[in-house]
Design a protein that fits this description.
Blueprint: H1 4-22, H2 34-38, H3 44-48, E1 72-83, E2 87-99, E3 104-109, E4 115-118, E5 122-125, H4 129-146, E6 152-157, H5 158-168, E7 171-175, E8 179-182, E9 190-193, E10 196-200, H6 202-210, H7 217-235, H8 238-242, H9 244-251, E11 256-257, E12 280-284, E13 290-294, E14 300-304, H10 306-316
Parallel strand pairs: 1-6, 3-12
Antiparallel strand pairs: 1-2, 2-3, 4-5, 6-11, 7-10, 8-9, 13-14
Helix pairs in contact: 1-9, 5-6, 5-9, 6-7
């Protein structure tokens, strides 16, 4: 029997993990316990281990199933952008693959302008799939175009993203390249970031992820990964844990997912393991895998090179490389 103290501790740990995952954190799978999974513990990761889930092939299938190992489980983390004139689109799309045997995680960013088949609909940018048909249609889209269907999904909008960063007191982002672009939150209407570790408040972090006037879709995916890593490190810092009650109250209103995350904490080792660089790897597409292209209607999009993307997916999903 749990004591009241243990119940409170469980609640805090659960909500913390909910926050970490929902903010597009990659490395939460680094400490999965295979023994607990095999014993049938309930919850998110136990559901992932169910081989009967997501096996129905979409009717408009054009890509074959990739031979994803049973011990590799996937979730797509989404950042949505609401626009009054057109609804929301998922401008951040991050595939996270968990290797339950090694305790490692890989992440692959899909550019929002990737021009793909939306099953039962038309060719469109990949960031329109959730808007058109929810998580199910995004899963169909992944299967038709890339040969795999994610196990689960989690989504946050950008206003929620900013609220969490404000509650965290800002984040320290390791910018791998200098960047400058138009912004709306200072008098100069122009922002500049040097290479190296840079402190960012909520406005600057969101600008850094989304800046587009002097940037490319490929560069945005890299910057999103840098921000994800910074959010994770700050979320598990002592200062954030002390602010847990406020974080819990805010995060509980922000997440949208197809999964029950209540028991996720059962499968994790101490948080410190997630800060180890060799526990996860990041992958992005380049113009070799996603070529700039103009549609008949004059839209600038990215045309996927499916064979080359498949080669990357083989690495991300540990296919033939356990």
């Amino acid at each position: 029997m749990y004591t009241q103290k243990n119940e409170k501790k469980k609640s805090c740990l659960t909500c913390l993990l909910f926050l970490v995952l929902f903010l597009l954190v990659l490395a939460v799978a680094g400490g999965i316990s295979l023994n607990l999974i095999r014993e049938g513990q309930p919850g998110f990761l136990a559901n992932l281990i169910d081989n009967n889930s997501n096996q129905a092939e979409p009717a408009d299938q054009t890509a074959g199933w990739l031979p994803v190992p049973e011990h590799v489980k996937t979730i797509v983390l989404l950042g949505s952008d609401f626009r009054p004139e057109s609804g929301f689109r998922t401008d951040v799309i991050l595939l996270v693959a968990y290797n339950l045997q090694t305790g490692q995680a890989n992440m692959l960013s899909f550019p929002r302008d990737l021009w793909v088949t939306i099953p039962g609909w038309q060719y469109e940018r990949i960031n329109t799939a959730v808007q058109a048909g929810g998580f199910d249609l995004l899963g169909d889209t992944m299967q038709v175009n890339f040969g795999f269907r994610p196990d689960h999904y989690a989504m946050v909008d950008f206003n929620g993203f900013k609220k969490i960063i404000n509650l965290l007191g800002g984040i320290d982002v390791h910018a791998r390249q200098p960047m400058e672009d138009q912004c709306e939150f200072n008098s100069e209407r122009w922002c500049y970031i040097e290479e190296g570790v840079q402190y960012m408040d909520a406005d600057k972090a969101l600008w850094y992820v989304r800046a587009r006037y002097n940037s490319s879709d490929f560069d945005r995916t890299r910057r999103a990964q840098e921000v994800v890593s910074a959010i994770f490190k700050k979320a598990i810092s002592p200062s954030s844990i002390l602010n847990m009650p406020l974080l819990i109250g805010t995060v509980s209103t922000l997440v949208e997912s197809d999964s029950n995350l209540v028991d996720l904490w059962y499968f994790l080792v101490p948080f410190i393991k997630f800060t180890q660089e060799d526990n996860f790897n990041s992958f992005t597409l380049t113009p070799n895998e996603a070529m700039p292209w103009m549609t008949d209607g004059g839209a600038s999009v990215l045309l996927p090179n499916h064979p080359l993307i498949e080669q990357i997916l083989y690495q991300v999903l540990w296919i033939n490389n356990p």
